[in-house]
Structure formats: structure tokens, C-alpha cells
Design goal:
By secondary structure, the protein is an alpha+beta fold. It contains six helices and ten strands.
Length: 248
């Protein structure tokens, strides 16, 4: 999985935060009930889901009263599980790019905001789990709090579909940057993902697929810088194409 020391791609915590920030839906399992919430509208779910550290320090009135001093058992907080699925916006094979699961206990009754309320739900954080094609990683609350969503997270879907639908020839041009060069067995290449560090292409072959990452010359700080960085990749691909076309 991606570690904080790798500057060429986001850390696991950053990847998870980006999924949460761009999510349009989630599955909530609380009190034994499963609810599909489909009205997030791409707004950061952590704006309505308040995560607190475990224990009385979370400010939970139930935790502060338990264990009770009269011998009665401690109050048991109801468990909650929140599931998020990151799906590629382009029609690639195996469109699920990542899954993020948050486990914890309810400190306040769950409210999905469908009634217009924006007070949110307080959750005693247990752990966050990120699952990708590279494996599974576990993320703590401090790490999740410290991470920031990718500046392209809210725009990535539109940017990738625009690239594929309106400028598909540029995807073919970007293949020039893939090293080693793809073999003739590639059936098609599609943009899979884009973040502040670069673009990922999925090369689909008869026997499967593989993903290749094309890093930007420098990481983006905001979405306004994306055009310059993409043009830099395209310029590099054109230069390489020109060199390859020269006679030996």
C-alpha cells in the first residue's frame, strides 16, 4: 500500500479522505438495520459525520456515566458501520477502484440528513479500512484527521469523462509515456484515475489488465493547476513521438 514516504502518489489516509470527500452514496449499518444513503451529492461526508476518539474524552454522556457505581453493567453503545465504494467514472474493466469502511459506535442517534437537518451524527471511531487492488490497510483517527482530500477529488469524474469523450486521441498520445512500451496485445487504454500527483491509465489486454501511472512534473496544490500539468505530459509525449519518428 502507499506510504507517506512515497511522493509520487497519495498516502492511504489521503486516498481514503478523497473517497469520503467525493462520495455520492454510502451504506450505513446501525442497530442491525442496513440503509443506503444516496443523497450525499459529492459533499464531504465528514462534514456531517463527526468522528471522536474512543473513551470518555469523546464527550459522550453515556460513556461518562458508565460504568455505573451501583453495580449495574456499563451502557453499551450501538455499533455502526459505514461503507463507501469508489467507482471509476470511465467504462474500464473492474470499475471498483477502492472501498473505504469506517467502524465505530454511535454517540448520538444516526441521522442521514434527509429531513434537512445538518447537525450530523457523532461516532466513537474504531478504525478505517481502505481496500484497493493493491491490498488492505488500516487507518487511525489521527492519521485520517491529518490527511486532506485530493484537490482534484471533486472534479476528477468530470475531467476523466471529458478526456475520454472529447479528447480520446490524447489518451492514445499519453501511451507514448508508458515504459516499457505496451505490446500489441493491448485492446484499449482508458483513463482510470487522476489526482494531484498524476494520471493513471488502465491498459486492457485479452488476458486481463494493468494500470500504469504517469506522474505530473510536480504535484498540484489546487485544481487550477491541472491544465498546465496535463499539457506538460502531452508535450512530453509529443516530443517522444517526434523522436521515435525520426530516421535512425
Amino acid at each position: 500500500m502507499r506510504m507517506s514516504g512515497d511522493p509520487a502518489q497519495p498516502t492511504d489516509a489521503e486516498r481514503a479522505r478523497s473517497v469520503l470527500a467525493a462520495a455520492h452514496s454510502m451504506t450505513v449499518i446501525a442497530d442491525g438495520l442496513r440503509t443506503e444513503v444516496c443523497h450525499l451529492d459529492g459533499t464531504d461526508v465528514l462534514g456531517r459525520l463527526h468522528l471522536h476518539p474512543a473513551g470518555p474524552a469523546a464527550g459522550n454522556p453515556l460513556a461518562e456515566r458508565s460504568p455505573l457505581h451501583d453495580g449495574r453493567p456499563a451502557i453499551r453503545l450501538p455499533a455502526i458501520r459505514l461503507e463507501f465504494t469508489d467507482i471509476a467514472p470511465t467504462p474500464v474493466r473492474d470499475r471498483v477502484r477502492a472501498r473505504v469502511t469506517i467502524l465505530g459506535h454511535l454517540l448520538t442517534p444516526y441521522a442521514d440528513g434527509s429531513d434537512g437537518s445538518d447537525t450530523g451524527t457523532c461516532v466513537e471511531f474504531g478504525q478505517a479500512i481502505l481496500e484497493t487492488g493493491e491490498g488492505r490497510s488500516y487507518i487511525g483517527l489521527e492519521e485520517l484527521d491529518a490527511a486532506r482530500p485530493d484537490p482534484l477529488a471533486a472534479y476528477e469524474s468530470g475531467m476523466l469523462t471529458h478526456l475520454l469523450d472529447e479528447h480520446n486521441e490524447l489518451v492514445t498520445l499519453l501511451l507514448r509515456l508508458v515504459q516499457p512500451p505496451p505490446l500489441t496485445g493491448v485492446l484499449r487504454a482508458l483513463p482510470l484515475a487522476m489526482d494531484r500527483y498524476g494520471i493513471t491509465l488502465r491498459l486492457e489486454e485479452r488476458a486481463g489488465h494493468r494500470d500504469v501511472r504517469l506522474p505530473f512534473p510536480s504535484p498540484l496544490d489546487d485544481v487550477e493547476q491541472s491544465g498546465v500539468q496535463i499539457q506538460a505530459l502531452l508535450a512530453a509525449a509529443r516530443r517522444l513521438s517526434h523522436r521515435n519518428s525520426l530516421p535512425a
